Amino acid sequence: MPWLYYSPTKASTALKDTSITAQYSPKAQVDIRLATFALDGTFLGFENATEFGHLQLCKDTIGKMQAAFSFGTVYSQELSLNLDRNYVRLDLYFFDGISNIGKLMPIPVLNRALVDNAGVLTNVVSEEDANSLTAALTLGNAASVASIESAIRDKWELTRRLFLVDSLSGRVSDAVTPATLVRYASNIELKIFPRGSGFDGLIYPPLLAVDYDNLYSAEDFGKNKRVKVAFSVTYDQPTELEAVFEQNLRIAMGVICTLAACYGMIRTWLWSRRAGVLRLDGMLILKLLLFVVGNVANGFLIVIYCISIYFLIFYKLQTSFMVNLPNSDQFMVNYIAAAFALKCLDIAHLMAVQCTVDIFFMDWERPKFPSSKLMHRTGVDGPDLHSIGILQWFLLIVVWERCFEDKLRSFADLCSITNVSVFVLAQANFGYYIHGHCPTGSSDVDMGGLELMLATERSGNAPRRGIMADSDRHTYRMALPAALRKAFDRLYAPLLDISTSGPSRGPLDSVHYTTLNDVYQTLNRFLMRFISRDNTEGIRFKIVRKRALEDLLDGEFDDTTLEGLFYVVLPSTYSSEGPTNSVCSSGIELHSSDIEAEHPQHVRHRTRRS
C-alpha cells in the first residue's frame, strides 16, 4: 500500500518541488489521474478525472466538467444535492490524485478536517498567522512574505488520500442498518501554482484542499434535505510575486496621489485668481481639499484602468503561460469603492459650483413700435405630411441631436439669429461669453427683411460675427478685472432686495416688476457698453489667445487688475471646419420665392424672442 503522509517532508518543501518539467500553454489540459482503493486497501485501478469528472460531486455535462482542467481557466461550481439519494447510491472510495506527465507525480492533499493527537486542526491557518501574512503583503516585503508562508505551510500535515462520501464508517452493525453519520466533501479546491514569468509554463506541484461536513441520520435523512457542495480550480501566483505586485501598486498610487495633490494646489491657486480670493481663509482650504479629492479619485480610476488593460492584453494574448492574474481582486474593489466615494464628493462640489453661476442674456435689439400689419398663417393638413413630420422629428431628436449635432455651435448660431449675447460669470472674476450680436444689426424683421439678410449673408457682404470687425470668433473665456464685478454687483443689488422683500410665491406686484425691469435694462446697457468698449467707468478688455501652458492647466496667468482679457475659443471646439459667419449654418434656409409660390397672399413674418 502506498504511503499516506508526507512526513517528515515539510509542506513548504513538497509544494516547491521543481521536478515537473511539462510546459503548459493556455487552454492545455491538466491531466489528473485518480487511483482508487477499496475499503480494505485493494487497488481498483486508475480513473481519468479530466475526462469523466470523477473528482467532482457537482455533476454536469462532460464538456463543462472538462473545462475545469483547461489550463489557465479559473473554474467554480456549486450546487445542492439530495442527501437521501447520495446516501443510498454512493459507496466509500479513497482517491489518490496523481498527474501524468510521462511519470506519475503525487498531488498533495490538504485535509482541513485533519486533527492531531491534541485535538487541534493542524491544516487550518490560525488568525494570528493570517494577520501576519496580510501585514507582510500590505508592506510589500517579499522576503518576509516568503518566510511567513513557509512557516505556515510547515505546520500542515499533507496526505496522499481523500474520499468524497463516507457512508460506511457511520454504520453500527451491518449494511442494512442506516448509517448514523455520513461524512462528505463539501468543498474541493484544486490549487495550481505557476512558477512565474521567468519559467514559461512551468508549475509547482498542485495542491488539493478539501473541507468535510457531517450529516446525522436522526436529523437529516428521510426529509429530502439538500446540502451544498462546491468544486473549484484556482491559479495562485507565488506570494512573493504578489507582495511585489502590492508594493508596485502602492508606489503607483502614491505617485498618482502626490501628482493629484500638486495639481489640486495648482487648481486652487487658479481658482483663487478667478474668485478674487487674496488671502488664506477657510473657503480656500475647503477648495483645496475638494480639488484634491476629485483628482485623487481620478488617479485611483486611472491606475485601476491601466492594471485592467495590462492583464486584459498580456494575460489573454499570451501563448506560453507567463502572466498570472492576482490571487484576489479585493484591492480593485477597495480602490473603486474609495474612488466612488470621492467622486460623489467631487460631483457634489460641481453641483454647488454650478448653482452659484450668474447668467445674463444681453439683448442687442433696439425697441420698436408694434407693427399694424396683419400676420397670416396657413396650415396644411394631410396624412402624408404627418408621417413625414414624425419621421423628421424622429431623425432629428434620436439620431442627429444625439450623435452628430454640435450643441454649443448651434446655440451660438441661435444667439446670433435672436440678437442675444450670453454673459456667464462662473466665478467673481472669470466667466464665459457668447457674442450673439446679429451681423445685420437686427433680428426682429419681416419676411422681406429676412430675405435681405440672407441675401447679404450669401453674398459675403455682411459684417463678421465676432467682437472684432475682422473676426468670426464669437465664443470667449473671460478673465475680468475686479472693478467689473463690483459694478455688476452694485447694479444687481436691487434684485437681491426684491428676493427678500417681494412675495415668496406668485407673480410680482407692479412696483417690484418695475424695479426688476429697470435693473435688467441698466445691467443690459452696462454690459453692452463694456462689450462695445464704450464704458464710461474706464473698464477695458483686450482679446488674446491662451498660451500652451494655460491651455494645459486650464487657467489664466496674466494680471487682470487694470484690464480684462477675453481668450478666444479655437474653432476645433465646434467642428473640424470651424464656425462660419452664415446665419444659414443653423439650418434655416428661407426663400421668399418659395413662400410666395405656395402662398400668393401678402405674408409678413416676424421672428419672436422669448
Automatic annotation (TrEMBL):
GO CC annotation, single: MKS complex
Annotated GO biological process: cilium assembly
Keywords assigned by UniProt, alphabetized: Membrane, Transmembrane, Transmembrane helix
Pfam family, one: Meckelin
Taxonomy, superkingdom: Eukaryota
TM region(s), chain numbering: 251-272, 284-315
PANTHER family associated with the record: MECKELIN (PTHR21274:SF0)
Protein name from the UniProt record: Meckelin
Phylogenetic classification of the source organism: Eukaryota, Metazoa, Spiralia, Lophotrochozoa, Platyhelminthes
